[in-house]
Amino acid sequence: MIGDTVSNENVPELQSIWDEARAAVEQHDYDRAIEIYRYILIRYSDNPIAVEYANAYLGDIFLTLRKLDAAEKHIKKAIRLKPEEPRYHYILGFIYSIEKRWNKAMSEFEKALEKDPGNGEYLRGLGWAIYSSGDVARGLACLEEANRLQSGSVNIMTDLAVAYLSSLNVHKAIAYTEKAVLIDPTNAVAQDVLRMIRRFNME
Fold it and tell me: What is the pLDDT of residues 93-142, one digit of tens each?
């Protein structure tokens, strides 16, 4: 999720509400979490920090549920309240990536990296968007740099594996997939990539 609980100074009820919402998310009871955050938007509409966080959490939840229109609407509201928060731009970039709106995705990931230039996950998002837009060499370079910044990230390794497999560099695709599976043998994405490579080698 986005981060720690919002400051509840002078609003003693808020802490228990945030805790309840967080517990709902941890239990994957997203309907209950959405209900709580929407309550916060109404009950504390005059508290900009509470409104910012509630919108950000809603954006994150709706992204998880792949309800992209709702996710975009809420994360944009959070960005309007706190445009300097890199995580919000990352979420919006992720939404645009799922929708294959690569130019918009790149713009948001770049904004996130301006605020947090050493973040490997943000660079992964940018690298994948660049690669998917057709700039293969620059996209791979970004993904490799992301891997250096965040060594051991299964997500980055699987992106690299898919990208190299698509570029017909099977040797590197296998190397990154094997590393990812070694780190997390139960990772579904890594297992999917491994199956893709096996099918590719059989053709």
Answer: 999 999 999 999 999 999 999 999 999 999 999 999 999 999 999 999 99
Residue 54 lies inside a defined structural domain of this protein: no
Q: Is 114 inside any structural domain? A: no
Q: List, for residues 138-156, the tens digit of each pLDDT value.
A: 999 999 999 999 989 999 9
Residues in the chain: 203
Residue 185: count other Cβ atoms within 10 Å of its Cβ. 9
In a domain, 65, yes or no: no
Question: With helix as H, strand as E and coil as C, how does the chain read?
Answer: CCCCCCCCCCCHHHHHHHHHHHHHHHCCCHHHHHHHHHHHHHHCCCCHHHHHHHHHHHHHHHHHCCCHHHHHHHHHHHHHHCCCCHHHHHHHHHHHHHCCCHHHHHHHHHHHHHHCCCCHHHHHHHHHHHHHCCCHHHHHHHHHHHHHHCCCCHHHHHHHHHHHHHCCCHHHHHHHHHHHHHHCCCCHHHHHHHHHHHHHHHC
| pTM recorded for the entire structure | 0.89
CB neighbour list of residue 27: distance below 8 Å, 6 or more residues apart: none
